Amino acid sequence: DIAMAAQMSDAHRRFLQVLMSHGIMEGSEARALHRRCCEIHKVYYAHDKLEDFIGTINSHLQPLFMQIRKGMSESDGRAHYALVNLAETEITKMASDYTENELELFRKTMDLIILSENGFASSTDILNLADELKTKKMKKKEAEQVLKDFVEDKWLSEKNGEYTLHTRCIIEMEQYILSNYHDVARKCNICHSLAIQSQVCESCGTGMHLPCVRKYFRAQTEPRCPQCNDIWSWDIP
């Protein structure tokens, strides 16, 4: 109920503006920003009230079909906050920034990443797709530049020539991925959010993010699947 929602203050507005300019923020940055905004605008600040503070902003963003969402970095398990557009499916949102064949390359890259064992696709495999595009073939040089743009715009992350979905992309596209890849997309058994880079139980198919695997098995000498209790056959990261 918007009428009942806490009022937006200048502190909330500043927080939203900074987050909008970043697109995504790590948890510790968001907490520091929360504090700074409250201090600058002399608004009541409590260090454990970030979620409430964001909740107030979200209640005012609701009519605009926007939302600040919390997600997790799959590489280190840290919390992140991203501003998400709920009105458009994310692929249509990207359409304003990219051409048809660039979008097709992104979709195909996403296929590779989501269908892979480990949540990564090699640059070689992605570049090979560039001359198979239906919309309009892409030269290798051109495709390399487009991949750079995807990384810069935080749709993809790259490490040693391997690409995966950026944390921001996962937060924004979770619903899209779960509905479009419902046979293969899985949620983490521990934190229940979408898991792209994950380990999967060989017996029952239960998947877990690597940081969640690390946390969950920390105290176990003989790691067993939380679902079927079979031996966990992967190396614990």
TrEMBL record:
GO biological process: double-strand break repair via homologous recombination
Entry-linked Gene3D superfamilies: 3.90.1150.220, Winged helix-like DNA-binding domain superfamily/Winged helix DNA-binding domain (1.10.10.10), Zinc/RING finger domain, C3HC4 (zinc finger) (3.30.40.10)
Domain RING-type residues, every copy: 188-229
EC number: 2.3.2.27
Compartment(s) where it occurs, according to its Swiss-Prot or TrEMBL record: Chromosome, Telomere; Nucleus
Keyword Heme among UniProt keywords: no
Keywords: Chromosome, DNA damage, DNA recombination, DNA repair, Metal-binding, Nucleus, Telomere, Transferase, Ubl conjugation pathway, Zinc, Zinc-finger
GO cellular component: chromosome, telomeric region; nucleus; Smc5-Smc6 complex
PROSITE patterns: ZF_RING_2
Highest taxon of source: Eukaryota
Pfam families for the chain: SMC_Nse1, zf-RING-like
GO molecular function, one term: ubiquitin protein ligase activity
Subunit description: Component of the Smc5-Smc6 complex.
Annotated PANTHER family: NON-SMC ELEMENT 1-RELATED, NON-STRUCTURAL MAINTENANCE OF CHROMOSOMES ELEMENT 1 HOMOLOG
Function: RING-type zinc finger-containing E3 ubiquitin ligase that assembles with melanoma antigen protein (MAGE) to catalyze the direct transfer of ubiquitin from E2 ubiquitin-conjugating enzyme to a specific substrate. Involved in maintenance of genome integrity, DNA damage response and DNA repair.
Protein name per its UniProtKB record: Non-structural maintenance of chromosomes element 1 homolog
